[in-house]
Write a structure and sequence with these properties.
Blueprint lengths: L3 E4 L5 H13 L4 E2 L10 H11 L2 E6 L7 H12 L3 E5 L15 E2 L10 H14 L15 E4 L3 E2 L4 H19 L5 E2 L2 H4 L9 H8 L3 E10 L3 E10 L4 E11 L7 H22 L8 H13 L7 H17 L4 H16 L6 H18 L4 H13 L3 H14 L4 H14 L3 H14 L6 H14 L3 H14 L4 H13 L3 H14 L5 H12 L1 H11 L7
Parallel strand pairs: 1-2, 1-3, 3-4, 4-5, 6-8, 6-9, 7-9
Antiparallel strand pairs: 9-10, 10-11
Helix pairs in contact: 5-8, 8-9, 10-11, 11-12, 11-13, 12-13, 13-14, 13-15, 14-15, 15-16, 15-17, 16-17, 17-18, 17-19, 18-19, 19-20, 19-22, 21-22
Amino acid sequence: MADIFLSYASDDRERIAPLVAALERQGWSVWWDRSIPPGRNFDEVLEEEIDAARSVVVVWTEASIDSQWVRSEALEGMERKILVPVRLDDVRVPFAFRRVQTADLLGWPGGGDDGQYSGFIGSVSAVVGSVPEEHPTPVLDRPSIAVLPFTCMSADPNDEYLADGLTEDLITRLSNNFDMLVIARHSSFAYKSQAVDVRQVGRELGVSYVVEGSIRRVGQDKFRITAQLVETATGTHLWAQNYDRSADALFDVQDELVVDVASATNAQVFEREAAAAVVSDRSKIGQWRLTKGLGMRGEVYTSREDYQDALAEIDAAMELSPDNVVLVAHKARFLAGATSNYLDLDRDEATVEACALAREALQRAPDDSEVLAVAGFAFALCGRFDEALPVLERAWRIDPQSSAAATYLGGGLILSGSEPDRGMQLLDDVLRRDPLTPFRFLCLFWQGVGHALAGDSETAVAKLRDSIRVNPLYPAPWIIMAANLVRLGRIDEARGAVEEALRLFPGLTLDRVLGSTRHTSGEQVAALLERGLAPIWAPD
């Protein structure tokens, strides 16, 4: 259970994220995410967490002051004499709680320099106590994870070796991901044969996530391997999977199992951390989350207002972290994406700015694989393949395990027409090596485009349908699929695909589609779309 139970109004989640980060930097665990494990009752989990917490920090704001939930939680903390209230807005604290001194952090930016903040930390420390010096919490710039030794649930000592081997291989595999700090084998195996709470492991090793699992025999000829990913701050199970394998073939498929578990772990951690991104969080991990969150975001905006809001968020992040070159590359990618995704914008102006930012990023970080991949992708989205391909090739050569670099290079080779077969192979490799990659949608989409350009409309439609299942909110697959359905003589299905694209992007015109396509992909793809869509798309 957590050291601190944080009580707040759900509307304030983004505002209090820096406060949570500040408390965690002190070495305390904070329960605030309120993710409830499947099958559990919200009230029961809430009661368990607040009962186990050593302090209840209540955040009084305009949104929380009238919340009965927050008042009830504050009352519980006050009755147990563990309440530490704090104001973020100039509000009148409810009468029942005025006898407990409230810290005022009005307009507090998330730092720890002012006296009010120091007093607040002191109040929390007086209630919670300090973190043991032997387990200091490190200031991390990326997510951290430990793989606990898999438990062998059979009496055969050979099975114990197998469990240890799976653990070691999984540690090695995860360690190849440069975006994750993986605890070394020696530290992880210190917990072998121990029944430990993952929250304790999180505190002792300074990790946010733990992978644990077991192996047992099912009858004489089968093994069942179970793996699960747990968040250490809350004990929440984020992912779990059983694998049943024949005993005869288990050693042959061990690598396959390790790849599956590592891919699922990477995808879950990546998605969860990126979803927690808050622009105002100045911590190292906060900036990592923001950078990855921007990397996962698509470039599909169906209105100028949405586009401007997203651009303002990127600009705010860059202002807070002027030394973060990846953010510069992502802004280039964002502007480039807007030129290719059907918005009624000045494409020439956006292209000039996007390419200038991409060149700036490359000049500032010429050997950073992520910067190279994102900046190269920006060039590709602007149709500047002469600049894009050498940069993407370099990104992939520096880090061949990078799904981003391989995906962007594969797409560039297909769209440019320079090496489509190699591009398709690179995308196949990404999907096989990392089945749950955040780039799965792009891989399938560009494979669909590649098959369409090769004249294989049947396979193109299948790939594009797969991409839609991964990301149903992107209109481009529907549009390209419609053109290929016309080629196949399936006119009613083609009209349905166009209708779906227009539902996602109201007011979209064929002229705008063709203009964006010519800008990014050239005449070959534009001609394919024009031949297929002109007969079924109503005039503008």
